[in-house]
Known about the structure:
Order of helices and strands: HHHHHHHEEEHHHHHHH
CATH superfamily of the largest domain: Intergrase catalytic core
Strand content: under 5%
Number of domains: 2
Mean pLDDT: 87
Number of strands: 3
Radius of gyration: 24 Å
Shape: globular
Strand order of the largest sheet: 1-2-3
Low-confidence stretches: none
Number of helices: 14
Largest sheet: 3 strands, antiparallel
CATH topology of the largest domain: hpI Integrase, Chain A
Helix content: 40-55%
CATH class of the largest domain: Mainly Alpha
CATH architecture of the largest domain: Orthogonal Bundle
Structural class: mainly alpha
Amino acid sequence: MARTFTTEQPMARSLSTGLPEAIESFLRARWDLKPNTLRTYRLSLARFASQHHTLADLTAENVDDYLASIAPHRTMARNDAIALRQLAQWATKTRIFLTDPLEAVSLPRGHNRRRRPYSADELRAIIAAASDTPLGIRDRAIVITALSTGLRPAELHAIELEDVDLRDGFLRVRPETTKTASGERVVPLDPQCVEALDRYLCDERPRNAPGPFWRNAHGDPLAFGGFMAIWHRLRDRLAKQGIEVQAYRARHTAITSWAVEGVPTSIIQQMAGHKSIVTTQAYIGRASTAELARYRGSFSRRFGRVAS
Length: 308
């Protein structure tokens, strides 16, 4: 049966346009953004739209009240403010607003502290808890890969079967899945990670299933919400032990481990997928006096005795 298309023209957008409709138009106009950024914008704008209904509600007063209500969640508040300001700028550019209604809205401050990397004892507890689940082989592989490769959660979720090279020990991160414009990168796989991934491929993942690497209990591709739920369950389970489980702390753990092992900062930048080395340095922090002492004899070790 041939598909028919309506010839009815959409109504012109105005201040009475519903927020969900306006949000969809805005997201379609931002086709240039990374998929992960679009997903973040969609979630942020949907939270505001759950409390307000039309574009007329996109006022500085309403946004300030909304941001104040989620202020304890500092990262979320900052992300939501960015998305709302982008929506307002789009609505102004398309002449729905005469002037930007959120121009005076300040961005909430995000966390200015580095996430603390996991200790060895915390690592063992997290891996043990991940292994003790109905899909423990998969969950263990996810946790160990996150801890050893430093991939962002969205990057790790998006890997496909073709991205994993266990024979040579590398993992490819495709440019369309990255947060920044750093492009495609290749990350080496730790032997323990190779073992965990091999076990998942051989014992739990459906065979002859190309495409998305991580699968749910039914063998279907694991949704991002399901991927993050693994970390949320670990967080709830280990909270009684005083272990603060966060997916991004795994990334910090990997990057810190590379620095402690003496990996050059430029190589860490490449493996982490940072566009700027300044970002890499923020993850690593300043070296302690004890760490600097390791390099006290670098000149003499390289050149020998050159002064008489």
